[in-house]
Each structure stands twice: as structure tokens, then as C-alpha cells.
Amino acid sequence: MSETAARKPWTLPVRNRHLLLTRGRRRAMPPVKTLRALGLKRGMCFLDVGCGPGYFAIPACGVVGKHGRVLACDVSPMMITELRAGAKERGYANMTAKRNRGYRIPFPDACADFVLIAFVLHGVAEIQRLLAESRRAMKNGAAITLIDWHKKPMDMGPPLEARLEPEELVSELRQAGFRKARWWDFDGNTYFASALAPGGCQGRGDAL
Ligand SMILES: C[S@@+](CC[C@H](N)C(=O)[O-])C[C@H]1O[C@@H](n2cnc3c(N)ncnc32)[C@H](O)[C@@H]1O
Fold first, then answer.
1. Is the CB of residue 183 below 6 angstroms from any atom belonging to ligand 1?
2. Strands 112-118 and 45-49
């Protein structure tokens, strides 16, 4: 039995979605700077799994530009509605947002250059299923980044029993067949874990 089976996954209640778009969050982890430092570039196809109301997906539309594409999915229809409204308000036409049911990612095989799963996996019971689906949607050599909370007591974020140690996410990435999996601390509260899909050879930034 894997470590994750003992966890108690927990997802932010949809009614609290405003907490995902606060100024404090933008100061702590500025989305454009973060995406660029992770290697997102103009013209890429960016896939945001568990996009919420668009903290990363909406700024990503500007980063990839009109020749790039943002694909976003979430199990919550309310999040998708809000995301679409946010993209429309900012005049972005390069985003496709869809609701996903369970673990199925509603986009084609090998479509993405870059996948982000940010602050989602602590709410997911079967991490391997979501990673396998992410891998299916990735081009050869595409990059995947997971962002989550450190597993230590703090006055924000999900309950401790839902959290994952960074080493657990690195191990999940390797188990799912990704290569060059590694993690790094971001600010003491949150961390990043990244890897590459098999095949290809694309250099990625790691300046965070
Ligand atoms: C804490 S929010 C993070 C949203 C966004 N990634 C961000 O960083 O602002 C977690 C989101 O993951 C979504 N989620 C949970 N399980 C999912 C799954 N299996 N597939 C897609 N989305 C999922 C939830 O509906 C929620 O919108």
C-alpha cells in the first residue's frame, strides 16, 4: 500500500475559492514570474490540471501569447465558469477550459508542452491516475510541475493529514514514468516538484 493511501485528501470548499485569488497570494507567488521561471514560453501549449478560478491559467494566456494555447480543467463546474469569465474579461481568446470528471483529463494525447498541477494533489486520492492522465496529454520531453504545501503545521493551507511530503511527490512522479524528477523548497511553506515526460530533450528553467 502506498503512503498516499493513508492520507485523508482534502479539497478547498468551492465557496472559499476567493482565497485562491488574493493579493497576498500574488505577492507571495507572482504567477507570471513563477510560470516564466518554470520555463513557460511564448507559443507553448500549457495545461493546467485542477485550474480553480485561474490563478495560473489566466496569466498563462499572456505568457504563451496568441500563438500559444492554454488548456485548463477542473472537476468543479463553478471553477470553470469563473475561469472562463476571468479570461473573457481580460480579452484572452487562447484558452479552452473544460470540466473533467474524475481522473480523465478532457484533452487529446500529446497536446501539452507544459503541465501544471498546483495545490491539487493534497485533495486527490489516486495520484497515479491523475499523473498517468497528465502524461498521456504531454508531448515527448514536456515538463510537468507540481506545487504543494509542505507537510508541517502552519496557519494556512489544507489539514496536515491531507498533505504530502515533497519526497512522496517525487516518488509518485518516478512511479508514473517521468524522468529527472526532483523537488525544491519555494518559501518554507510551499514546494515545487518537477519532471519531464519520456522522450525529447527540452531544457527547463529552475530559477525559483
Ligand atoms: C486549492 S484549488 C487550486 C486551484 C489552482 N490550481 C490554484 O493554484 O489556484 C484545487 C483545485 O483542484 C480541483 N481538483 C481536485 N481534484 C481534481 C481532479 N481529480 N481533477 C481536476 N481538478 C481537481 C478542485 O476542484 C480545485 O479547484
1. no
2. parallel
Q: Is the CB of 120 under 6 A from ligand 1?
A: yes
Ligand 1 center to 53 CA (angstroms):
9
Q: What is the pTM of this model?
A: 0.94
What is the rounded end-to-end Cα distance, in angstroms, of the chain?
Answer: 33
**Tens of pLDDT along 39-66?**
999 999 999 999 999 999 999 999 999 9
Which structural domains are found in the chain, ordered by start? 23-196 (3.40.50.150)
At 155, list the grid cell: 496557519
How much distance in Å is there from the Cα of 113 to the middle of ligand 1? 20
Q: Each residue of 92-105: pLDDT tens digit?
A: 999 999 999 999 99
DSSP letter assigned to residue 118? E
Ligand 1 atom closest to the CA of 21, numbered from 1? 9
Question: 102-134, pLDDT tens digit by residue?
Answer: 999 999 999 999 999 999 999 999 999 999 999
Cα separation, 102 vs 150, in Å, equals: 25
